[in-house]
Structures are given as C-alpha cells and as structure tokens.
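Purpose: get a first structural picture of the assembly so the mutagenesis plan has something to point at.
Setup: three entries, given in the order below. No constraints added.
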Amino acid sequence: MSAEARVKFLLNGHPQEVPCEDARILLDLLRDDLHLTGTKRGCDLGTCGCCTVLVDGRPTLSCLTLARLTEGRSVTTIEGLTPPQGLSAVQRAFVDLGATQCGFCTPGFVVTATALLEENPRPTRAEIERAISGNLCRCTGYIKIVDAIAAASRSSG
Amino acid sequence: MHLDPFELHRPTTVDETVRLAGALAGRFDFLAGGTDLLPNYKMHLNLKPHLVALEDVDELRGFSADRLGAMARLADLERDPAFAATWPSVADAVGEVATPLVRASGTVGGNLLLETRCFFFNQSYFWRASLGFCLKADGDRCHVVPQKEVCYATHSGDLAPALMVVDAEVEVAGPAGRRRLPLADLYDAKGDGVRRLTLAPGELLVAVHLPRAARGRRGRYKKLRVRPAYDFPELGVAVAGRWTGDRVEELRIAVGGAEPRPRRFDTLTDALVGRTLDDARLRELAEAIGKSVRPVHNTFLLPDYRRRMVAVYVRRAVAEAREGTAG
Amino acid sequence: MASGPSRPLRLLGTKIPYVEGPLKVTGRAEYTDDIHRPGELVGRLLRSPWPHARLRSIDVAAARATPGVFAVLTGEKYPTPFGVLPITHDETALAVGKVRYIGDIVAAVAARDERTAEEALAKIRIDVEPLADYPDPQTGLSKVAEPIHARGLNGTNVQKEVVQHFGDVDAAFARAARTVRVRGSFVGVTHAFTEPLVTLAEATPDGRLTVWSATQVPHYLHRSLSEVLGIPMHRIRVIKPEVGGGFGGKSDPLPHEIVCAALAVETGRPVRMLLDREDVFFTNHGRHPTQNDVRIALDADGRILAYDIEAVIDGGAWSSFGTVTTYYNGVLAMGPYTVPNFRYRGRRVYTTKPPSGAMRAHGGTNIRYSVEVALDRLAEETGVDPFDLRARNALPPHSLTVNQFRITSTSFLKCLAVARERSGWDSKFRRLPFGRGVGLGCGFYISGSNSPIHFTPKMPQSTVHLKVDMDGGIAVHSMQADIGQGSNTLLAAIVAEVLGVDLERVHVQRVDSDVSPIDIGSYSSRVTFMMGNAAREAAEELRGKIVAGAAALLGVPAEGLEVGHERIHPVGRPDAGVPFLDALHRAMESTGALQATGAYRSPTLGGTFKGARAGTAPAYTFSAYVAEVDVDVETGEYRVEKIWAAFDCGRVLNRLAVEGQVEGSIHMGLGQLMGESMNYRASRLFNPSLLEYKVPAPQQMPEVEILLVGDDDPEGPFGAKEAGEGPLIATLPAVGNALYDAVGCRFLELPITPDRVLKGLDLRAKEGRRWKGA
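Result (structure tokens, whole complex):
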C-alpha cells in the first residue's frame, strides 16, 4: 500500500502530486524524481546544509525530511527563489562579491540567507555567521559569504 | 542514502497516538523533528517497520512560559525573547543545539529523548559490522569498556540539564493514562546507554512543564565542544539559582554530555543554601562535581580533559549565572 | 616569453566575478550527479571490513542471480595496476589477491536501483586469510612478516626512501653558533570537499565510452581508464562537469571512477556511481600523517648554515602521489631562506589505512610548520626579532638554491615588511598580556610543478584553443579543470584582455576530451601560470589575425594599430579605428571562422642528480603571515583573532579570486591546526563523517587582512604566479608561534586541541617556567 502512496504539495508555488513511498526522503524526491537538481546532496546526514530548502518558509534539511510529511505544505527550492530573468538580491551579491567558489554549497547558502533576511532584514555580522553555521563551505572561509549577505541586506531597501 | 521501507502513521490526537503505539508495540519509533532519528535510520541503527509521526498532534505543539509542547520547535523557542528572559538556562541550551538548520526541525521532545551517542554506535552498518556489533545495536558487547555488559553511550542532549535545573516536569501519556514526573526521573538512574529512560513501552512524551516557583532563577548553560556549531556536547553544564547578595537561596546544577544520563547534584548544592558562595567554596563545589563525573573515551575529546573541564565549566556557569550574564 | 604588459590592463587586476557565478547561485550549474542518462543503473561498492587479508575466494553467484542485477565485478576482471605516477602503479580498480585497508574495494554491482544493488552486495561471500595489520609507519620501517606490497623495500613497508645531501651539513653544525631541533607530529587530514565523489559512465554501441566525473585532472583519468580497461584513449571521452571542490582529493584517478566505467562496459548501460560521505572518507588521498625531525644551524651573525631534516610519512595502502610527497617533505623547506647546506632523509611507509595523497599545499605544510617553529625558537634563543632573523636569510631574487631550484621573482622581503607594519608587531610581540600573543609564520610554494607527470616537457603542459565565428563570440577550449578556484574566469579574462573585448564575448567550454586540448589539470598550483601563458599566446595569435583585418579595412599597416575597448585603432587614436566585429568579419573573408592556439612548455630546470626535478617550478610564491591569538588558559580553548596575510603571487590578475583563495586557505589551514583529524585507532578510521571531522565553523574564522605585495614575475602571464595553495602554508606556524607568544608553550603535535594546550601549560608549570608574569 505504501507503493501507491502519493504526496501533494506546493512546489515553488505550483501544486504538485507525485507518487511517494512512506520512506522517501524529500531530497531524493526533488533530485531523483523531479529532477530539481539545484538542491545538492553533500553529506546526506544533516551536517553540511547543501540540501537546504524552504518548507513553509523555514529553512529545512531536505536530506532529513520525509517527503510525505510535506503533504499540504509549501516547498521552495533554489529554483523557486530564482526570478525568471536575472538574479535575486542575495544571488546577485553572492556573484559580485565572490561568495561562491566551487558553488556546490551555494544553493543551500542562498536559501538560508534568503530566509534570514526575510526574518531579520538587517543582521549583524555575528548574526549572519550564526545563521549560516549549519551550511558548510570548504572553499571560501565564509568571509565573502558573510560580506555578500550583509551587502544583500543593505541593497534590499 | 535511502531508507529501508517502513509504514508511516500520522495520528492527530494524543489518544490516537497512544492507541497506535499500543497496537504497534515494540515495532515502531516516534518521529518528531527527524534530525536524530533519520540519520540513525540511514545508518541502519535499530530500524523499526513503523514510524509514528507526531507533527499533526495538535496538543504536542507550541509553547508558553509554563509549558513546552514535546513538538515545540527549537528554532521557535530560540526566537522568543520573553521566553529567554524567563528561562535563561533553557534559552542558552536551545541556542547551542547543533546548527540552525537542525534547530529549525528539531523539537524539545526530540532533544530530551535523543538517542545516546558513542563512536562505536554512530557509524554505518558496514563500519559496525567490520568491527563486530555492539550492545546498543545488533550486538552483545561494549567496545568502550570491553569487560562490561553495560552500555556507555553518552547522553548528548543540551536541553535536559538546562531544564532539570529549573525543576521541569514532563507529562507522559500511555496506555495507563497520563502521568507527570520530574524530568530528572525520566532518565533511568539504574540504566545505561541502552536502557536509558524510565518510560514504559508505548508511552509518549506530551509536554514539559516549567514550574512557576522556579521563575526568576538566574541561569546559564555552558557547552563544551570542538566547534561553536554542528557538534554534540562533549560536556554540558546547566546552573540555575537565586541569591540574596552573596547568600545562596536556591541552587541547582546539572551535567549532561558526559555520561549515559544527565545528572543533578542536589546533595552538594542543597548544602550551600543559606550560605555565602565565595570563590573558595565555589571552587570546592566545582571540584566535587568534577570528581564525580566519569566520561569515557567514546567522543571526540579525551575523557580526562572532559572530566577536568567539568569543574571549570561548573565554576564559570555558576559565576555567570550569579552575575546574571546571558549568552 | 610573456613579460610585463605593454599597455595598462583593463580587466585583469580588478575584481572579476566568476563567469559561471550566475549558474552556481541559481543551482543551474551542472555537476556530475545532476546529469541523467536514460536507462541508468546504480553502481555500488562492497568494501573490505578487514584491514589486511589475503582473498581466498569471492562467491558472487547469489548476487548475480538477484533480479535487477546487471553486473557483478571483482578484481580479476580488470587487474591492470594504475596510479597517478607512472613509476608507482600499485593500485587496482578492485582488490586483487589482497585487501589492504578497511574500505578497500572488493566487489561492485550494477543494478536497477540502490536497494537492489545493496541486496546483491549483501549476498557476496568472501573467504579470506586475515593478515597482520600495520597501522603504524614506524613498524613498517623494519622488515615485517607480511609486507603490504611486494614492492616494499627489502621486506619492509617502506614505499619510497629519499636521501639527499647538498654541501656539508655535519661540518656546518660543527661550526654553528647555535642549533635547534624540533620534532613535529601531524595527524592526517582530508579534503572534505562538499561534493561527494561521483562518476557517470556510458558505453555506446559505436564502441565508445563516455565518462563524466568529479575530477581535477581529466587527462590522467583518461589515461588510467584506457590502461585499465584496455580501450584506446581515442575511444574514451572524458567530460568534467562543474566540480564541487577538490583540494587535491580529486586529482588521482580513483578506483571508483574506473569501476564505474567498467560496469558501464559490462552492462552496456549508463551507470552512476555516487559515493556516500563515508566512502569519500575511506577514499581519502588526504595529507600524510607525518613525523618530522628538523635541525637547524645558525652562525654567529644569525645566518642559516644548514638544515638537517628527517621525515617519516604514512602513505596508507597505496602510492598515489607519495613519491613526490616524500621529496616535497624535504625540498619544499628550501625556501624562502638561503640554506647553504642541506640534508634530508625522507621515508614514505605503506600502512593498512586509507591511502594518503595530495592535499592543498601538498608536501609543503607539515615541514613548514616545524621549520618555522624552529626559527621562532632560534630567534628567541639568539635574542633576535623573528622578522629580522627571517629577513636576514631571505632568498635573493634571481638566484639558485643549493639543490638548484631556480628562484626568479621574490617579494618575500616586502611580505615581511608589510606584515610587520600592518600587524603592529613591534608593539605586540612579547608585550601582550599572558594569554594573548602574536606569531609569525612564513611560506614558500611551487607555482606549478615543472615536470608534467605523464609526458616529457617537450609536450606542452597546457594548450588553449580559441575559435571565433561571425557572431563574434569567442569559444575557448582547454582541459584545464576549474574546481571552484576560478580558472574558467581567468581564462576568459585573459582572452578578453588581450583582444580588448568585453568578458561576455568569451565562452569557456566545458572540459571534454573530444574537443578540449590537453592541459594537465588542477594540481600543484599550476593553472594560472601555465594555462594563463597558453591562453595569452592563443589570444595574441587571434589578435594578430583580427588586427590584420582592421589593417585591411583601414588601409594602414598592422604594426601601427593597437587594440582598444572593442575596437582596433591606430596607436593613441581610438576615434580613428574600426569596431572589433568589423575587423573580425574582414579577417574571416578568406578562412571563415578564425582559430588560434597557444601552449605552455615548462623550461628546463633543476640539477642532474636523482630526484632533481622534484620541487622545480617555473616560479615560486612567498608569504609572511602574522596571527594574533587569545587563549583561555583555564580551558585551553583559543581563538585566532586576526591574521595579516602578506602574500607574493606576483601580479594579481583577479583580485576577487585571489582573496577568496587566501581566505579559504586560511580556513583550511586553521582546520588542520585546530581540530581536523583523521582519527584512527589501529587501522580503523573512527570519524568518517562531516559531523565528526571538524572543519571549522564560520564563527571560528579570524578577521583576515590580505596584503598582496608581489612584483611581476618575469615568466608568469602578465607577471602572475599561483595563489591556490601557497596561501595555506604560513597559517599554521603563524598561529603555532602566536600560541607560544601567548602562553610560553611550544605545540609540536597537530591538531592543537584544547587538551593539548592545557597539557603544555601543565608542563610549563611543572618545570616552574614563568611567562609574561604568569
């Protein structure tokens, strides 16, 4: 019976209904079934934050989320945070200030940063460091990531 | 990493949950935030064929100054300045759990009931099989203290000591109805890293109650870990108390992250009530607690160091609590 | 050879955002695991649970019979040994005859899905004869009962021994005014890139094999695939999608890549091999656990007379880059100071642990820590300021070291001067209160290995092709491997600079062995220097053709023309020229699309003695870092408050990228110093996870002040040198020496965890030594 199970949720603003076993992990559903590959699989155990998505606006580790528990909720991936043309303020700042190197952790950081600025439009550097401390970056030493989030906070009015 | 198949249940009331738990006796786990259970499932640790998800059970959600629902999200607690002002030790501890992303999903109940941890346990199936399984999953021996048939896995939650020092009680629902017990009694004093809780089979943690009498205690939670994010506690020290001038009116100290269960040190602290806690006496108290805590070599930092830090962290936590400094 | 610019640079030297940045921040950049092929199978590996055992038999019948299983592989099918160095081919795709560490690959399955693959793996029965394991390299220095490899020297587990002696070290020590000895101990650390190892392979009925892989060195992978699978290189196509970090950990051809390709050949279906994080830790190839022993002799004037160095490095189960590492642990001590007498004995020992290999600042990091701590001690013992001691011994520009490294540009003295001034050193050193301190550490690194690994220096190390057609877009092809360091951006920027066009005209193509000319990839900090020169040469050739078109349009000789912004015009008269597109179209009239090629060949360098090429590079980078620390003397916890990073990378071509490399290097260096550790008990790795492998958190990063003071290098592209690895090295000794200034204890075991700090403080108290009043 679990093989016939489905999940219905709002994905990047669009209703979605797909087959989904009880044990299906949201990250696997997004990447492998729906081919939304912007969400990255880094450690698969909840440490690195590469797989961060928004569930009802809250940054969430999709590698530790059962897909069926998003039933009726709104899931936003990096694809959903990207405007049809151009880049969001956070994305722009990440590019311009060199906050992305290999880029593999970047979608997760953009998701986390977007949610942070939604909640706290003018974070201090210490608040930014704390907010991103569940997203692991091995390239940048975080300095330019903090710079970019601070710059995005200033640019958004 | 996929999960082995299980059947997911989504009850909406406490009664329904308890009935389900009864029906599935021994063949299920409760699923709260999932940030502890699902990594363990991915590593094939003690899998069950049924998961009972608690997030639709209204009664478990939300929190107030008097009551924390078992499913209250740590991130929500963290964002409430009024709560932090009332319960500083708890607010400290909440903010120290893992990472912001774990706190976004992680819950109060999940942290209190966190699976105990050990370098020999929190490993993949392959890793554990290659060494020989241990007491805590699939095996019958302990690799930490090989002569013993007890499990030394460490209590690794941050919230328990912080809630214990404000005399929190937990409300539990089970086949026999509801009961309340001091949080300190949730952890089995006669148990070990496997038999760690006093909950009866099928019992569900509903809420944590914060007694009015403990409001206004000054408090602090200090956590030893290698990094200021990600890591479970290598040691967690919680303090709450009331002072009149230098005179101790009430004092509670609890230590987690060091042994299979978090412990409070009431005998030592009760002896100080009514007395002045000067530096020498504080040092003596801290040393006494330090002597009685016995970590083993199953986490990242060495046990001798963790043990030595107990006294330092106790002394600092008390001093900082008394000064009323927070985070 | 390229020299300084003839006109002011327009683009190079500014902060140039990464050309692929918009794709990365939107999740549209394509990494290997994002690519899907129809009919894909899942490949999974069965790993050895034994640290050392002889394989008696492997029964795969039940696995093969599992519905949904398409292939099961074991070692005997593809037994050809391979390895990144042609002289040490001792790896096999799957274990043959023996397993040599917990995690060694024994079998592989391709199945319709992950669950089926794992079900099949669980049915494989392996019969073994367990053998003694050798986790400790010291044991392996002597004859052992069961050498890990037959190639171990004289029945030991020693894979490589290097003995070098230049000058007369014993005589130098005999006449020294002061000597010092430091013995450093370093655990292994690993790359911990965020993108796990992953390969996708597809064999098609036209007899070709296509392999997409997360690799830093597509060309070496290409060669190894050909060797092991027995398929000519021209029938194999290697594609490098975006790579989520490498740091050396994706520079060897790795067994899972070959196994994945083999499964694709066996099944005729596309096969994906995505490694779990635990698998990535078992694959390792990280920095060697190291014991080194450094003696330094000074004369009465504070000049270095001699180094006498020994190192024992723990190679793990395979050779990997280890022969090079063995040399590097000695010879990379050759700068940034003049060392007139030098002796080195280095041994790399096989152990029954995951293989060690190359990691950022390969071979130069651990020896540098011990040398810089030794110099700090010598400065103290001779009453000389650490800056002065180092300045007195700085290698001069355009000189030869005693082992015949050719030094060209060096701005080391400028690094020292600016670090000293900006850090406020003179008011801080030994003057901050107990618990606070500053320390100096310096560094020296190769700007590209002069010797390409797989062919003679007669073949170019880097080739760049350009193609431009009527649309005016410039396609750039090269097998250089951008792994996040910004080499695509630099490649585009150099081409745009030379042609005077906007960056958006230049399109760097994905690395694809069918169309990309060979560049030997991202390792040894070689890309800026070598690819940069090749790109400049190609762009200059193309510029010549386009300028000729302009000359024809304008009716003037090409010699009188120069390239302006999107225009070609008479020298000094931008208004009189023609637009770039017009000139291009004119130039295309006879040939159609224009093409150009550029190549870089390394010069002939080094002596003629055995091992003389190890450590030779067309240029070297230099650094001087000051760290300031604050120690909690009761807990041993400490914070690095600030690092002043003075670095000589020659001319800065992309300031944004160089800053990013310096900051990231400091983060990685601090990780090794403060807590990162491959934790073994006997042969068993205890922390194969990002939770228990302690990469520093954002809150642990110090403030970083970057001081880029390099003068132009005579041979670097536009005067540039490397910035990818060198910036890591000085971080560790700067902090180690700052801890000494703070608390008066020398820390010679890395990582310097809080318990070790306390141990140091205890020892000082026991010895009754006072420090800064405490």
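Chain C touches chain A through 56 residues (CB under 8 Å).
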